[in-house]
Structure formats: C-alpha cells, structure tokens
Amino acid sequence: MLPIRAITLDLDDTLWPVLPALIEAEHCVDRWLKEHHPTVATQWPIEAMRELREKVAREHTHLAHDFSEQRRITIRQAFEACGIDDAPVDALWRIYYAARNNVELYPDSLPALERIAAKMPIVSISNGNADLEVIGLHHLFHTRINAIGAGVAKPDSKIFLAAADALDLPPAQILHVGDDPLLDVVGAREAGMPTVWLNRTGEKWSHGPAPDLEFADMHGLADWLDDSSATGG
Ligand SMILES: [Mg+2]
Domains of the chain (ranges plus CATH)? Predict the structure, then answer.
C-alpha cells in the first residue's frame, strides 16, 4: 500500500446506526399526518407508506441515487390516492429530514474523527441524505460528496473518483472506509482505492478478495493511521 494521504468515509452505519433514525423519521411523519391529515394517515400507515416508497424506487430507477426525491414522490402519490393534489411535500420533507439527521453517533466516532482530521483530509461519500451540517460534524470534513450531487451512487467508481478529484490525489493514496462490503469495499477497490471494512458487528468477510484492512470501530482506524505515520508507512 502507498502512504495514505487522505480518507474517504461512508456515513450511515459507519459513524452512527441509521435504522433508529429512519424509523423515528417515519414515526414523526405519521404523527404529523394523524394530526393534520387523518384520512391520509389512515390510508397510509407506516408499513403501507414504506411499501409505497419501495414501489416508487422500483418505478423510478433513474432516481436510484436520489432517496430524497423518491421520498417526495412517495408523499405526492400518497396524497393523490386520497384525492389531495397539493400535498404538503415541503413540510413533510422538513419533518422527515430533521428526524433522519437526528442520529446518535457511535461513541468512538467523534473522538476518532477528531484524531484523524488533525492528520489528513477526510471526505464523506454517502448514498443517503445525511446532512453533516445538521449533525454538527461538517467542520471535520474537507469535502462532502453524496449520490445526489455526484449523479451516481456507490458502488459506481465515479463517486469515488469525484472524491479523488476534490482532494487532488491519486485514488491509490486515499483510503476508503465503510461498513458495506459491496457499496464501500468492492466499489472503492474498483476505483483503485485501498479499502477498510468497518465491521462493527463482527461478521465474516464473504464477498471475494478481502479488504486491505478491517477494524471493529473508528479508533482502530485512527490507531492504525498513527502507527503507519510513525513508521513512515
Ligand atoms: Mg454505510
């Protein structure tokens, strides 16, 4: 491995567990509907709304990189099915977005990020609509890249190469870190980056050639970066 000069980093399930925030966001939307549009809430309980969102995703494959637009279309369709043409898309989107970004960091994430950011630039690469500014971590990132802005989602090489462009570094000197074997490890390797699998759950690797490195949490990565710079590696 060449000396590492920057980190690209996945967000959801790498720095915080995303599922609790997504579930709470669905409940916030549901509570708002019950209060303001009870007929819509009755016709579209959480489970039905989730199925509609999946149907929207299947029918709009050109929006595979844009979860936000998929969700706005879902709101519009749910209201249309109840005979309401002017759905409160913006209001509901704001409620969803605020709750979705109300994440609870893994305890290692912030201290490890601070250690790493003091050494080298960090670029986020996310397929989701997490907002580092809302979450309060943006000051630790050199650049933030998401699938909506890049026009493609991981594992497409283009989103990783956009990060290399922003850093003005060759992919071989950028270490990509993420929890998802296919989206993060396989995708980044295809783009020519060395890879870290952040394996918080202690799973076994079963996706072809192993990642270059594997850590159980972000401290493992920060420790490794300390050691490799101490040895000039
Ligand atoms: Mg992830």
Answer: 6-17+105-230 (3.40.50.1000), 19-100 (1.20.120)
Q: What is the pTM of this model?
A: 0.92
Instruction: For residues 16-34, give the mean pLDDT.
Output: 97
Q: Is the pLDDT of residue 47 over 60?
A: yes
CA of 52 to the centre of ligand 1 (A): 23
pLDDT in tens, 61-104: 999 999 999 999 999 999 999 999 999 999 999 999 999 999 99
- Cα 13 to Cα 101: distance, rounded to the nearest angstrom: 13
Q: Name the DSSP letter for residue 18.
A: S
Q: How far is the CA of 127 from the centre of ligand 1 (A)?
A: 8
Lookup: tokens for 205: 């690797």
Give distance in angstroms: CA of 12 to centre of ligand 1.
4
Query: How far is 60 from 78, CA to CA, in rounded Å?
Result: 16
| Ligand 1 centre distance from Cα of residue 172 (Å) | 21
In 3D space, the residue among 182, 70, 178, 149 whose CA is nearest the CA of residue 158 turns out to be 149
Q: How far is the CA of 126 from the centre of ligand 1 (A)?
A: 7
